[in-house]
Design brief:
Strand content: 5-15%
CATH architecture of the largest domain: Up-down Bundle
Number of domains: 3
Strand order of the largest sheet: 1-2
Distance between the termini: 87 Å
Shape: elongated
CATH superfamily of the largest domain: Fumarase/aspartase (Central domain)
Largest sheet: 2 strands, antiparallel
CATH class of the largest domain: Mainly Alpha
Number of helices: 19
Radius of gyration: 30 Å
CATH topology of the largest domain: Fumarase C, Chain A, domain 2
Structural class: mainly alpha
Amino acid sequence: MTDYRIEKDSMGERQIPANAYYGIQTLRATENFPISGLKPLPTYVDACVLIKKATATANGELGCIPQDIASAIVNAADEVLNGQFREQFVVDVYQAGAGTSHHMNVNEVLANRALELLGDTKGNYSRVSPNDHVNYGQSTNDVIPTAIRVGSLLALDRTFFPALDAAIASLHRQAEEFQNVVKSGRTHMQDAVPVRLGEVFRAWATILSDHHRRIRFAAEDLKVLGLGGSASGTGLNTHPRYRFRVAELLSEYIGQSLQSAPHLMAAMQSLSPFVGVSGSLRNLAQDLVKISHDLRLMDSGPKTGLKEIQLPPVQPGSSIMPGKYNPVMAEMTSMVCFQVMGYDQAIALCGQAGQLELNVMMPLVAYDLIHSIEILGNTISALTTRCIDGITADRDRCAAYAEGSLALVTALNPHIGYLNAAAIAKESLETGKSLRQLVLEKGLMDEAELAKVLDLDEMSQLPPSKDELND
């Protein structure tokens, strides 16, 4: 028995490893694109295979392909979705424009597995063809943008939104825990009026909640599918009911309401939904960098920094300095966010690079967008469980910074005037005397009034809401 089979395409014949489920077009692609070693993301494979399952089902129902072949393709798709044959998806991320190479890899794997399920042998494409059956009524040009949509929606629901929800909940819990901890505020990296540590965490929770809303809004555009447009958006070689049926099936498979685009050519030509989602992820990444940097600053020390909070030590921090622990989860968060920002720039460049009826930059968008969603979700999850959940506050140190801040003089402005307050602050810095001591020495306020004005608890309260004022 030979260890290979012979397959033929329009360019000639090639030997294919006998145990391979991919075929001749995949083989050519692996030879043409030995670029990065990066293979398609599992979620992207899921999306492509879900599309093939839906199209086979629809085409079988509509009489476009034999029902026994449709059923075999569906069964092969289910096996892949359950984790089998994953090593067969081998085309490099950087490949032929539009994604034809990966698309044919999927078609060939499903065709060859369907052949086996029908009791036939791999490579007998006269029985089950990657093109004529698995790909009936389809084109790379409508399948791949649909796969990016479906893959992104899967990644958002499986990884990203659960992680973001958990982070927001954790920040709210810490906000309650630290609500009575007063610390010095800082603007321009200099002393500012006091704030509550709990409100710092609550502000972060609000920031993330706002991003959650923006990303969900942007993701709505992913639910409008160009599948059924075939090669150029005209629906050539498709049944009139096909595009609506596949949208129904995909909606059922992923548990979201998808619809066929009102204008298939528009849905196939424009990558703007992907640019929009990527941009909303970049926006979140920018705020996450700021939050991660704040965590590092507030934990700096332990002897020569702020050390207002303690991040959980999760691993030794130095190969040479014993006993050192670094804010590694916050550092990792910033690096991932920088990568997401880089991906966003690449996606934006891809978005404007289409010509006429097609944008051929889709393979890069598929990898960068789904990868952005997943690494950002995984990062947020790790930051939450390995860092935010375990943060503690040094209450005494926070109080000492708040009490010693020269910015407390701001509260004296309405009572002694800006110039007197500025002079008091300058003298305090020069002499080391406290603001309270100098105000009393100069007879600018009496002790009771001064105590009321410099009440840190009162000073750090947020202003009332409109509803609270109306009450």
